[in-house]
Amino acid sequence: MLQETLGSIRANDSWLYSYTKSFSGFAAKLSEAESKKITSMEGVVSVFPNSKTGLHTRRSWEFMGLPENVERAETESDIIVGVIDSGIWPESPSFSDKGLDPPPTKWKGICQSSSNFTDFSSKL
């Protein structure tokens, strides 16, 4: 699409990133006219501009009551935090660990089961 719109040399200069996991797409530096041309191409679902957003706060440490210059222990590095809402369905293909390696040996967490939850994988 970029080559068709811009030509091969300009397309290489314009291209920023290709998205291939969740959807098929790309990021590129385009003029408004170039963006409109791509928008009208068959197979294009949407084209939207990049936008910058401002920070909500620059005082997170203060907001949370934490000192800014606290020394960190090495045990605090490489922490994995998981948040699971009440809508999780472990049988979903999204949680399959097929093809994944087991958790790293340095991981010291536990899988805490209950009578309602015993189905763990490398993702859960």
UniProtKB/TrEMBL annotation:
**Keyword Signal recorded:** yes
Listed Gene3D superfamilies: Peptidase S8 propeptide/proteinase inhibitor I9 (3.30.70.80), Peptidase S8/S53 domain (3.40.50.200)
Q: Does the keyword section mention Signal? A: yes
Q: Which keywords does this Swiss-Prot/TrEMBL entry list?
A: Signal
Pfam families, A to Z: Inhibitor_I9
MF term (GO), any: serine-type endopeptidase activity
Q: The Inhibitor I9 domain covers which part of the protein?
A: 10-56
The domain of life is Eukaryota
PANTHER family from the xrefs?
A: PROPROTEIN CONVERTASE SUBTILISIN/KEXIN (PTHR10795)
Q: Which family does it belong to?
A: Belongs to the peptidase S8 family.
Name of the protein described by the UniProt record: Subtilase family protein
Native organism? Perilla frutescens var. hirtella (Perilla citriodora)
